[in-house]
Structures are given as structure tokens and as C-alpha cells.
Amino acid sequence: MCRYWREDVAVAKAEAKSKVMVVLVSEQRMQNLIPCFQKDSTITNVHLVRSSDADNPDSRLGKAWSDTKAVLEERKLEVVDADVAVDAYDPASTEKVVKRLLDKLAHHKRTAVVNFTGGTKCMAVGAYLAARQAGVATLYVDTARRQLLLRAHDDQPCAVPFELDGLSIDTYFRAYGLNPRVNDGQILERYAKIMTVIRRYWPGSAATLDMWGKHFDQKSSSRRKRRLSGAVKVSWRPSDEVECELWAVLEEARLFCQEGEEFFASAEARQFLTGRWLECLTYQLLRESNCFDEVAFDLHLTEKNTALAAGPGEASPASTTAPTGGAANQLDVVTIEQGNLAVFECKSGNLRGQDTLNKLQALWTRLGTFARLFLVTSCPLDEISGDFRYRARAYRLARIITREDLEDAGKLKDAVLKAVGGS
Asked: Which residues form the Card1 CARF domain (predicted)?
């Protein structure tokens, strides 16, 4: 057991008041937050060392500094800022500030560990040298292997696997200056019976729903067949077992309504058939996989203390702060597992255009390297063009989840874990 992380209970209680972590402010917030969420951590104080760029509150580092402080304080940790900012590209500048801080902590008999994962490479070198000269422990957050590498002054590195407590989806988004609002789940209950039929007849049900959804996409701009209520006339009838079963549950849920000899699809039906069903299916399968700490459906994001974040290229109507880097304010399905966030954008029917890829790239830019992005499609793999797959890789998508991957929870789990390198 690593004596610099999980001490004997009596020792831990004795040192709890003096365990301090020194960190380097970084745009990648998780590497500075994860150690504080590690199970059995005795860290109670965090000292933040920032570069001079962070002194501009509107800069990216300025926002990272304030977001990191806010999450740590919500964790009931005491947060202290270094007296002066450092030069991000001068190791000696960081070394001097960290050494002075460590000397002060030693004078007050405080046990310190220096987390040198954040900041620039020059800052990391300076912080590491200061720690070695002061004879205190160092910490590196190894995100690839999901472990903390701790090293005492005279010891070999000690690897402690991530075992996080309380690092939720909500915490992750707030660490990046966003407030998530989660769907209350009623919509999932409403569609439960329909989803049962969809899964029973998979993959035939996917082909049917894609066909019906395409029909509504084509009719969406037609005013002649739309009623004042928003309902649209349905011009086809079910012709096989799969279509009949789906039609029956849609009618039972009053998504399809009959008036005389005619059937009409409500506005809700059109939303469901053009993609909502795929979001519900993805959420169900991810929940059933039991490999995530948390799964959330239909998240709506707001900037801290502002109105809803704007869509691509739009200004937030009631916000004076920066928008979400071009990201739309609604996310279909989100998971988190040991501090790693995954966003699943669902797209039924044919994959075309650039909007979805643009949205996912903007999210990757905003949410950091701990976020993994997936595009979920109802199309089979052989219907996705090589050009689209190439662009998806260029836009840093972890994987395109296809119709074949959605057969059951096990197959979806395997596809996701293969993409992120999990086991």
C-alpha cells in the first residue's frame, strides 16, 4: 500500500489537518481535481500556482483558475492562491515560487505533495525540481492508465489506481464553467413500452423507424398537410409484422391518432421518429451495461450565472460571458466513469452534412482531453461512407456507434470500451 496516499487510520487522522497539495493551474481541470476525489484522500488544503495569463479573468486560463477553485471549495477544501503568478515558459520562475511555498509549509509543519501534472511543461519541470530540492513527495496523474503516480523523496514511484468518490457528471461540467440540467426521466417512462417493441424487433425496427423518420423529414416543410395543432397526415400504412407492432404502440401512446379514415402524427411523434427513439435506446443500453459510474439523458447546459448557452455561431441572448465554444446547449446522453466523461450524440437516418461533427468538435475543445465523444447512428456500418469516417477521425471522435453495436447492452459496452481503451 502506498504510504503517501492510504495511511493507517490513526496516522491519517493525525495528518489530516496538515495534508496540502500544490497544483499548477491548467485548462485541463481534471488532473488537478482527481486527487481530491480519490477515495480515502486526506488532502484538505490546495495551493494553486498560476501563470500570468490566468490573471486575466476573461482568458481561458483565467476561467480555468476560477472554475477549479469553485469545485475545490464545493468539495469543502481550503484553497489558497500563490502570492504571485509565474512565467509559463521559464522553469526557474515556477521553481522559485513553489520552493518559497514549500518552505513556508515546512515552517508550519505541513505535509505537502506537489502535483506537477498541470501547467505548461516548463512549469511542470520547475515544480518538480522545487519538490525534489525541498524533499517533499511528487504526484503525477496518469490519465492513460488511470492511476496516481506518487513518489517520496527517497522512494520509487508508487502507483495508486483511480478509485474516485463523488466526481459526478455535474461536477465535471461545473469544472468547465457549465451548469447541467438533467431531464427528469418522465419522457423515458412514457416511451418504455415503445422501446420494448423496438428492442424486440431489432434490427428490423431500426430500418422501419429510419424509413418513417425520413418521411417526416421530407414532409416537415410542407404546410399543406400540417394541421394547426402541428399534426401531420400519415400517408402510409403498416405492411409487415414489425411495422404493425410499432404502429400499434405508437397509436396506443397517442403519437398516431385516427380521425375518420385518416391518421395523423403529432409533433411529438415527429420528434420521436426523427431521433428521440435512438437517444432513449442508447441511454437504456448504457445504463444496462453497468460499466459507468453515472449515465444521464438529455442534458441542457448553461454557462454559470447566464442564460442557456448559444448554438453554433450564435450569441447567448442573455449572457455577457463567452459561449460554450460553439457547442449546442443540449446533449443526448452523457456518461462518466472514473473521471472520464463520454458524450453520445445520436443521429438517426442517413449521416450527412457537417453540423453534427462541428458540434462534437466544439465539445471536445470545451470539455478537455478527459472527454470522449461518440456519434451514435441507426445506420449499419456498410452505409457509412469512407469520407464520413475519415472526417469523424479528423474531428477526434472516439468511435461511430452503428446499428450493429446497438443490438444489446453487451455489444455497446464492448464498442465503447474498445474505443477508450478500457477493459
From this structure: 20-149
State the Cα torsion 316-320-321-325 to the nearest 10°.
30
Q: Are 149 and 161 in contact, with CB atoms under 8 Å apart?
A: no
What phi, psi does 351 have (nearest 5°)? -85, 120
* Closest of 53, 61, 68 to residue 21, by C-alpha: 68
pLDDT exceeds cutoff 90 at 152: no
Task: Give residue-wise pLDDT tens across range 170-218.
Answer: 999 999 999 999 876 788 899 999 999 999 999 999 999 999 998 876 5
Instruction: Map out the domains of the chain as residue ranges.
Output: 9-163, 181-186+278-420, 191-272
Q: What is the mean pLDDT of residues 305-316?
A: 40
- Cα 307 versus chain centre, distance: 20
Task: Write out the DSSP string of 315-353.
Answer: --TT--S--STT--SEEEEEEEETTEEEEEEEE-S---S
Class at the top of the CATH hierarchy for domain 9-163: alpha beta
How high is the pLDDT of residue 3? Answer: 52
Q: Tell me the chain's radius of gyration from C-alpha atoms.
A: 26
How many residues make up the chain in this entry? 423
Question: Which grid coordinates belong to 164?
Answer: 474516485
380: cis peptide before it, omega within 30°?
no
Tell me the whole-structure pTM to 2 decimals.
0.87
Q: Sheet harboring 111-115: ordered strands across?
A: 78-81, 45-49, 19-24, 111-115, 137-142, 147-151, 158-161
Cβ(422)–Cβ(414) under 8 Å?
no
Determine the pLDDT at residue 328.
Answer: 52
| CA distance linking residue 210 with residue 349, whole number of Å | 5
The H or E element containing residue 181 is: strand 178-182
CATH of segment(s) 181-186+278-420: 3.40.1350.10
Place of cell 476561467: 63
Q: Name the H helices within 192-296.
A: 192-200, 204-219, 241-252, 267-271, 277-289
Largest CA distance in the chain: 87
